[in-house]
């Protein structure tokens, strides 16, 4: 009890020091110069919010733009001996960006706190321009794999932008800023697949525009990357105009305002000890571990599904696929993304309030199982019936995933006291990133296995693929129940 009281005193003293620092403005500090944006009477920072929207969009589009043509790209790179092996290598390509991001997310966060938000955002845009362009120019599989990995490794945009968004607005407008980030991500889910689907292999689709010996005939997957590079160039011009929000106080200025002694009145060792105690408290909190497990399982499921769905759509009818073109896949993913954005803005808030957090988590989790098991049956349909049913199923599956993942975010915050939520979200983001990175590789390998075992007597081919996905969904359903996720997690922990 004495230790807890001492820790609380240290935290209170630290908060008082922070409040004092906020009241002082240093003329040479970039954060102080734009502190007026956080004033309670400040208006909505439209220019900054629109810039944040564009930055997230440009950084997110490369993640989803390759799914419509991923199967054909691996095929054209001649890395496989048989088309039945394409899924494995496609999974590696899909996972490489997320692996790079997972390995460097913490380092980019440290850099953003030390050097500023803008430098990290600028370097992230440059990485998109360089590595995404090189990805489109890849002439062999290993070059494509390396450039995707480097694109993820050098892109610290998301963490920096989330911090930036909270620093360019007051508490009244922060919710709007966060929704801009989510809406931009949703728009990237629409535009990204559309760019990949319509602009890949342009010499085959638009021979009158792109000649047989043109650059885009030699590099059939370069045009989508080039378009994203142009967008990144425009975003780079915009970001240079934005203010830096990180406070950088000169020691001499701090001495003049007599804050230097205040800042160091709390021993550094004590603050480190408090942080370590908070982390240990989180890891011993059953509700936090349960909420994080829900997020990890369903993030893994969602990434695995995305990889398998695109490969299944373009694979031949003979192996249980739909034999779609990149255009077809781009249209389906675009329609689902547009529907998701409308659902997220207009329907989900009211639906979540009506159902409650518990039912918002469990109902879509349970319904996802029979929905996934129906996918192999969809391959037996033809014509417009196939097109309509597939779009409806894809839209519903997208809705379910969004409901579960959104609810898991609320569960995570409910599982810890308010003063521990920053650390809790940081720990959770690191762990979830690992599961997201594993998903595409697992999905691609599973799909490749299914392609090679079409004649199995028990669960042949795609029955095993989607059956395994359903098993993961069942595990996800179980994770939302007691004793894995305590009932108290569905109520806010103050």
UniProtKB/TrEMBL annotation:
Membrane topology per record: Multi-pass membrane protein
Presence of the UniProt keyword Membrane in the record: yes
Domain of life: Eukaryota
Residues passing through the membrane, by range: 49-74, 86-108, 120-138, 175-199, 219-242, 288-312, 332-352, 359-378, 384-411, 423-444, 464-485
Residue ranges of domain Major facilitator superfamily (MFS) profile in the record: 48-488
Cellular compartment(s): Membrane
SUPFAM superfamilies xref list: MFS general substrate transporter (SSF103473)
The protein's name: Major facilitator superfamily (MFS) profile domain-containing protein
Originating species: Sphagnum jensenii
């Amino acid at each position: 009890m004495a230790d807890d009281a001492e820790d609380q005193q240290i935290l209170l003293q630290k908060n008082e020091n922070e409040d004092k620092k906020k009241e002082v403005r240093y003329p040479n500090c970039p954060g102080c110069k734009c502190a007026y944006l956080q004033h309670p009477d400040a208006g909505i920072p439209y220019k900054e919010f629109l810039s944040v929207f564009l930055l997230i969009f440009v950084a997110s589009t490369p993640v989803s733009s390759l799914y419509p043509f991923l199967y054909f790209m691996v095929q054209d790179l001649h890395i496989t001996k048989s088309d039945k092996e394409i899924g494995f290598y496609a999974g590696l390509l899909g996972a490489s960006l997320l692996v790079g991001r997972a390995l460097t997310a913490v380092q980019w966060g440290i850099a953003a706190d030390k050097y500023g938000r803008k430098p990290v955002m600028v370097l992230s845009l440059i990485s998109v321009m360089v590595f995404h362009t090189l990805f489109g120019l890849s002439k062999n599989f290993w070059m494509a794999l390396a450039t995707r990995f480097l694109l993820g490794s050098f892109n610290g945009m998301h963490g920096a932008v989330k911090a930036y968004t909270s620093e360019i607005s007051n508490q009244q407008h922060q919710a709007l800023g966060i929704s801009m980030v989510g809406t931009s991500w949703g728009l990237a889910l629409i535009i990204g697949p559309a760019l990949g689907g319509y602009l890949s292999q342009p010499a085959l689709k638009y021979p009158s525009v792109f000649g047989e010996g043109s650059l885009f005939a030699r590099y059939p997957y370069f045009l989508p990357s080039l378009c994203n590079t142009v967008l990144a160039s425009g975003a780079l011009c915009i970001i240079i105009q934005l203010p830096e929000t990180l406070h950088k106080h000169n020691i001499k200025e701090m001495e003049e305002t007599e804050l230097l002694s205040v800042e160091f009145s709390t021993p550094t060792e004590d603050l480190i000890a408090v942080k370590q105690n908070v982390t240990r408290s989180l890891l011993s909190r059953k509700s936090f571990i349960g909420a994080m497990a829900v997020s990890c399982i369903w993030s893994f499921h969602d990434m695995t599904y995305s990889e398998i769905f695109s490969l299944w759509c373009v694979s031949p009818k003979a192996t249980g696929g739909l034999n779609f073109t990149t255009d077809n896949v781009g249209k389906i993913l675009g329609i689902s993304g547009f529907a998701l954005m409308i659902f997220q803005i207009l329907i989900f808030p009211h639906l979540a309030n009506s159902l409650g957090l518990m039912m918002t988590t469990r109902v879509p989790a349970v319904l996802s199982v029979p929905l996934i098991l129906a996918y192999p049956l969809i391959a037996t349909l033809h014509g417009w019936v196939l097109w309509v049913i597939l779009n409806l199923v894809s839209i519903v599956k997208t809705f379910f995933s969004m409901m579960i993942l959104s609810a898991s975010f609320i569960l995570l915050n409910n599982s810890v006291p308010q003063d521990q939520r920053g650390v809790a979200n940081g720990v959770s983001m690191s762990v979830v990133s690992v599961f997201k990175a594993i998903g595409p590789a697992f999905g691609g390998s599973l799909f490749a296995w299914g392609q090679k075992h079409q004649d199995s007597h028990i669960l042949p081919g795609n029955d095993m693929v989607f059956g395994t996905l359903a098993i993961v969904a069942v595990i996800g359903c179980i994770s939302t129940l007691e004793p894995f996720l305590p009932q108290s997690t569905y109520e806010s922990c103050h």
